[in-house]
Design a protein that fits this description.
Elements lengths: L4 E6 L5 E5 L4 H10 L6 E5 L5 H12 L3 E4 L5 E4 L10 H4 L9 H8 L1 E5 L12 H9 L3 E5 L2 E5 L7 E3 L5 H11 L5 E5 L5 H13 L2 E3 L5 E5 L8 E3 L4 H13 L3 E5 L7 H10 L2 E5 L2 E5 L9 E2 L11 H9 L4 E5 L8 H8 L3 E5 L2 E5 L8 E3 L3 H13 L3 E5 L2 H4 L5 H7 L3 E6 L1
Parallel strand pairs: 2-14, 3-13, 9-10, 17-18, 21-22
Antiparallel strand pairs: 1-22, 1-23, 3-5, 4-5, 6-8, 7-8, 10-12, 11-12, 14-16, 15-16, 18-20, 19-20
Helix pairs in contact: 1-2, 1-7, 4-6, 5-6, 6-7, 8-10, 8-12, 10-12, 11-12
Bound molecules: uridine-diphosphate-N-acetylglucosamine (UD1) and phosphoenolpyruvate.
Length: about 425
């Protein structure tokens, strides 16, 4: 995997077979951060092999933890001795999720200094709600020179209401609140499954949390945390991306390692437009029929339709019959894939938070650029449908969040090659 890799994709008529979902990137990142709470060695299983995970492990190493990845999806973090409270800009600037070390470091070291995350290709993404939460727990916040320093003598539980159910703010505040004196409530909390997985990990370490996975979380602070072994939940966005891969190629794919509750918003939409889906325990079979009726999609916090599936869904709507409207309510700039899809023959007009997609019978291959992780996935999916050859450049974005995407697609019959340029 290199910074200068691209995918070369030929049209695939029908993807068939079985694919295993990897562990969730968005659950693994906060859980890796949470290992910092316990003095000792925690082991995480089912950790996806992704560049974002490598960066997070490097950050933990810089803080004094000793991290080892066995190359088979198991990571050990020995956080016995932490000797730094500052994470280097070179690493934190690579990944927004790095800001999630703030909560556990504040809880354990009473002091943390991180670079303020800048904007990113999908939006401005401020961290004001994270900081408001720490402030409510009694921390002192100082900003300057591109950094934010958060310190406390001790953390004290409080009632926190989030103006928006931010996933990252809920996770960061939760990881500090578990060690605060007394009771913390987080109202209007994010209810994404990754938060429930983090809470489950924290609880196994000794934390006392109720309500995680709903919009109201209650935490009774505890003094100590023990290191544990824990298996990361499956990646619902990877599962969803393979569902679209099957639908867009008129395929027949069985996806193993799915938690059906987590992907309900997508399952509902795909059934509505004409895909056939059978759920059997943690396995899901999706059959495409080549004809989909366009629909409208609005991204919302869980259990609404996930913003992380919006771009991939747009690829499918591009080849559906009729007109669909996609409304993006979570990030203000998450339509960069639309122009690239148009270069492949899609008919999409973007106006503010809405994209109007008029279906076209077939896309055509082109050279396109992945502007971010899910935009990249959407272009790969479109490439599977497009006549001729599609080249997707800047696939380092895709490597942030999909483990061996090309290998998994090849195992289902896709003609996709990774080439360095
Ligand atoms: C590593 C990880 O888990 N990333 C996910 C996480 O990102 P992330 O945790 O960054 O997303 P948030 O839920 O925090 O962001 C949602 C919205 O809230 C805004 N906001 C957020 C925090 C804040 O302090 N102030 C503020 O205004 C953001 O700019 C954005 O418009 O949830 C997103 C929404 O489901 C997903 O797309 C990302 O894949
Ligand atoms: C936006 C995403 O991730 P991040 O928050 O790490 O940028 C994503 O996974 O689609």
């Amino acid at each position: 995997m290199g910074k200068k890799d691209k995918f070369i994709i030929q049209k695939t008529d029908r993807l068939c077979g079985t694919v295993e979902v990897s562990g969730s990137k968005n659950a693994a990142i906060p859980i890796l951060a949470a290992t910092l709470l316990a003095e000792g060695k925690s082991t995480l299983n089912n950790v996806p092999g992704l560049t974002d995970i490598t960066v997070m492990c490097e950050i933990l190493n810089c803080l004094g933890a000793r991290v080892s990845f066995d190359g088979a999806n198991n990571v050990t973090v020995d956080a016995q001795n932490l000797d730094h409270t500052v994470a280097p800009y070179d690493l934190t600037s690579k990944m927004r999720g790095s800001f999630l070390v703030m909560g556990p470091l504040l809880a354990r070291m009473k002091k943390v200094r991180l670079s303020l995350p800048g904007g990113c290709p999908i939006g401005s993404r401020p961290v004001d709600l994270h900081l408001k939460g720490f402030d409510a727990l009694g921390a002192e916040i100082t900003k300057g020179f591109g950094f934010v320093e958060v310190t406390c003598k001790k953390l004290v539980g409080n009632k926190i209401y989030l103006d928006f159910p931010s996933v990252g703010a809920t996770e960061n505040i939760l990881m500090a609140a578990v060690a605060a004196e007394g009771v913390t409530t987080i109202e209007n909390a994010a209810a994404e499954p990754e938060i429930a997985d983090l809470a489950c990990f924290l609880t196994s370490m000794g934390a006392d949390i109720s309500g995680a996975g709903t919009d109201s979380i209650t935490v009774h602070g505890v003094k100590t945390f023990q290191p544990v072994e824990y298996s990361i939940m499956p990646d619902r966005i990877e599962a969803g991306s393979f569902m679209i891969a099957s639908a867009i190629t008129n395929g027949d794919i069985t996806i193993n390692g799915v938690i059906p509750e987590h992907i309900k918003p997508l399952t509902a939409k795909l059934c509505e437009i004409g895909a056939e889906i059978d759920v059997n325990g943690n396995s899901l079979r999706i059959r495409g029929n080549g004809h989909y009726t366009a629909t409208d999609v609005k991204t919302l916090p869980f259990p609404g339709f996930p913003t992380d599936m919006q771009a991939q869904m747009m690829s499918l709507l591009s080849v559906s019959d009729g007109t669909g409207i996609v409304t993006e309510t979570i990030f203000e700039n998450r339509f960069m894939h639309a122009q690239e899809l148009c270069r492949m023959g899609a008919n999409i007009k973007v106006e503010g938070h809405c994209a109007v997609i008029e279906g076209t019978p077939e896309l055509t291959g082109a050279k396109v650029v992945a502007s971010d992780l899910r935009a990249g996935a959407a272009l790969v999916l479109a490439g599977l449908n497009a006549k001729g050859t599609t080249e997707v450049l800047d696939i380092y974005h895709i490597d942030r969040g999909y483990e061996n995407l090309d290998g998994k697609l090849r195992s289902l019959g896709a003609d996709i090659q990774r080439v360095s340029y």
